[in-house]
Amino acid sequence: MNDTTVTITPSRVAGTARAPPSKSYTHRAILAAGYAEQTTVRDALWSADTQATARAVDLFGGNVERQDSTLEIEGFSGRPGVPADVIDCDNSGTTMRLVTAAAALADGTSVLTGDESLRSRPQGPLLEAVADLGGEALSTRGNGQAPLVVTGPLSGGTVSIPGDVSSQYITALLMAGAVTDEGLVIELETALKSAPYVDITLEVLEAFGVEARKTDTGFSVEGGQTYDPADGEYAVPGDFSSISYPLAAGAIAGDGGVRIEGAHPSAQGDTAIVDIVDRMGATVDWDRSGGTIDVQAKTLEGIEVSVEDTPDLLPTIATLGAVADGDTHITNAEHVRYKETDRVSAMAEELGKLGVETTEEQDSLTVHGDESVLEGATVEGRGDHRIIMALALAGLVAEGETTIRGAEHVDVSFPGFFEMLAELGVSVERDA
């Protein structure tokens, strides 16, 4: 990957931006459409991972046709056929988990594999769950890892599974359980890890007309249900971690207003950024039914905000705090130190190069807006897409040019980020 340097010149922003669609929702929507008869999935993320899920739907007897970000999916109506070939999940762990449970519904044997990385990831608890429900599910190497051989069909029942290995096991079983004869009761043996991702699953199921629910000890889903979204359509919501950047850009430099499209309400924790920007004083109007957010810059005031459930928002909030009056106190932040980089220290140090005063503690970061004078400088992206994008926002209002090294890493989550800024009126120079 080339070391790309991007230079931002102070700019005001206006216009319309669209954030990338959510990968988590896209996976679930493609498979849910597979379980259905005919579905139009709009605003889908078409990436290597989601293409793997689409290939599985094809192999189960469905058909996925793509036109830009719209997918026309002919499903297999709740009963996957036996695949005519091995299902290659590539590098997508989500695909492998979701598809393993789907394969257990087929009246025959399916074989699943993936790349070297995916073949090292744990699948054992899900294989045991399939076996406990009357199917057969084997790891060819006997180590709970792919390649997997799965034979169905399942009729449903009650199954016990750990919740702290992967929430995707729960997602896979809930999605498959809805079309079994008996339905499925899932008892959790341990506390559920990454619970918001199961909330996403429940939300997608509801959109497709499938009822599943939390219980005191786990989850349950009635059998014999039909996947049938309203009007035969489903729109994938935008990724709210990514939405935080154009939203913050509008809040600090959007005198003429910025509209963000693809902002449909969802179970994503990072929807909290809308409330945060509003609390800091920007003018924010979220049309939930239309999936648009309009934001206009106003004088911002520092606030206290916990990032316990929203660690990816810390860099964005820190930049907002650098522009705001008073102190912005970001709390419950220790886990943010264990991301692609230590984002607490990274934001303190890189914003410091731009003239921002901060106080860093183990589990918090306080940004002293009143003591800060934003001045352009050269900063390091630290191989972290979120640090890069947050620093680019600071460059909108810093005095002079802000140069960010290693800017190519935005491709991890928002490949068109700098193009989006340019379309909003930002002066962006790129040097590979």
From TrEMBL:
<dbReference type="InterPro" id="IPR013792">
    <property type="entry name" value="RNA3'P_cycl/enolpyr_Trfase_a/b"/>
</dbReference>
<comment type="subunit">
    <text>Monomer.</text>
</comment>
<keyword id="KW-0028">Amino-acid biosynthesis</keyword>
<keyword id="KW-0963">Cytoplasm</keyword>
<keyword id="KW-0808">Transferase</keyword>
<feature type="binding site">
    <location>
        <position position="93"/>
    </location>
    <ligand>
        <name>phosphoenolpyruvate</name>
    </ligand>
</feature>
<dbReference type="InterPro" id="IPR006264">
    <property type="entry name" value="EPSP_synthase"/>
</dbReference>
<feature type="binding site">
    <location>
        <position position="386"/>
    </location>
    <ligand>
        <name>phosphoenolpyruvate</name>
    </ligand>
</feature>
<dbReference type="GO" id="GO:0009073">
    <property type="term" value="P:aromatic amino acid family biosynthetic process"/>
</dbReference>
<feature type="binding site">
    <location>
        <position position="166"/>
    </location>
    <ligand>
        <name>3-phosphoshikimate</name>
    </ligand>
</feature>
<feature type="binding site">
    <location>
        <position position="23"/>
    </location>
    <ligand>
        <name>3-phosphoshikimate</name>
    </ligand>
</feature>
<protein>
    <recommendedName>
        <fullName>3-phosphoshikimate 1-carboxyvinyltransferase</fullName>
        <ecNumber>2.5.1.19</ecNumber>
    </recommendedName>
</protein>
<feature type="region of interest" description="Disordered">
    <location>
        <begin position="1"/>
        <end position="21"/>
    </location>
</feature>
<feature type="binding site">
    <location>
        <position position="194"/>
    </location>
    <ligand>
        <name>3-phosphoshikimate</name>
    </ligand>
</feature>
<dbReference type="InterPro" id="IPR001986">
    <property type="entry name" value="Enolpyruvate_Tfrase_dom"/>
</dbReference>
<feature type="binding site">
    <location>
        <position position="24"/>
    </location>
    <ligand>
        <name>3-phosphoshikimate</name>
    </ligand>
</feature>
<feature type="binding site">
    <location>
        <position position="167"/>
    </location>
    <ligand>
        <name>3-phosphoshikimate</name>
    </ligand>
</feature>
<dbReference type="GO" id="GO:0009423">
    <property type="term" value="P:chorismate biosynthetic process"/>
</dbReference>
<dbReference type="InterPro" id="IPR023193">
    <property type="entry name" value="EPSP_synthase_CS"/>
</dbReference>
<feature type="compositionally biased region" description="Polar residues">
    <location>
        <begin position="1"/>
        <end position="10"/>
    </location>
</feature>
<dbReference type="Pfam" id="PF00275">
    <property type="entry name" value="EPSP_synthase"/>
</dbReference>
<comment type="function">
    <text>Catalyzes the transfer of the enolpyruvyl moiety of phosphoenolpyruvate (PEP) to the 5-hydroxyl of shikimate-3-phosphate (S3P) to produce enolpyruvyl shikimate-3-phosphate and inorganic phosphate.</text>
</comment>
<comment type="pathway">
    <text>Metabolic intermediate biosynthesis; chorismate biosynthesis; chorismate from D-erythrose 4-phosphate and phosphoenolpyruvate: step 6/7.</text>
</comment>
<dbReference type="GO" id="GO:0005737">
    <property type="term" value="C:cytoplasm"/>
</dbReference>
<keyword id="KW-0057">Aromatic amino acid biosynthesis</keyword>
<feature type="binding site">
    <location>
        <position position="339"/>
    </location>
    <ligand>
        <name>3-phosphoshikimate</name>
    </ligand>
</feature>
<feature type="binding site">
    <location>
        <position position="168"/>
    </location>
    <ligand>
        <name>phosphoenolpyruvate</name>
    </ligand>
</feature>
<feature type="binding site">
    <location>
        <position position="23"/>
    </location>
    <ligand>
        <name>phosphoenolpyruvate</name>
    </ligand>
</feature>
<feature type="binding site">
    <location>
        <position position="343"/>
    </location>
    <ligand>
        <name>phosphoenolpyruvate</name>
    </ligand>
</feature>
<feature type="binding site">
    <location>
        <position position="121"/>
    </location>
    <ligand>
        <name>phosphoenolpyruvate</name>
    </ligand>
</feature>
<dbReference type="GO" id="GO:0003866">
    <property type="term" value="F:3-phosphoshikimate 1-carboxyvinyltransferase activity"/>
</dbReference>
<feature type="binding site">
    <location>
        <position position="312"/>
    </location>
    <ligand>
        <name>3-phosphoshikimate</name>
    </ligand>
</feature>
<feature type="binding site">
    <location>
        <position position="28"/>
    </location>
    <ligand>
        <name>3-phosphoshikimate</name>
    </ligand>
</feature>
<comment type="similarity">
    <text>Belongs to the EPSP synthase family.</text>
</comment>
<dbReference type="GO" id="GO:0008652">
    <property type="term" value="P:amino acid biosynthetic process"/>
</dbReference>
<dbReference type="InterPro" id="IPR036968">
    <property type="entry name" value="Enolpyruvate_Tfrase_sf"/>
</dbReference>
<feature type="domain" description="Enolpyruvate transferase">
    <location>
        <begin position="10"/>
        <end position="421"/>
    </location>
</feature>
<feature type="binding site">
    <location>
        <position position="168"/>
    </location>
    <ligand>
        <name>3-phosphoshikimate</name>
    </ligand>
</feature>
<feature type="active site" description="Proton acceptor">
    <location>
        <position position="312"/>
    </location>
</feature>
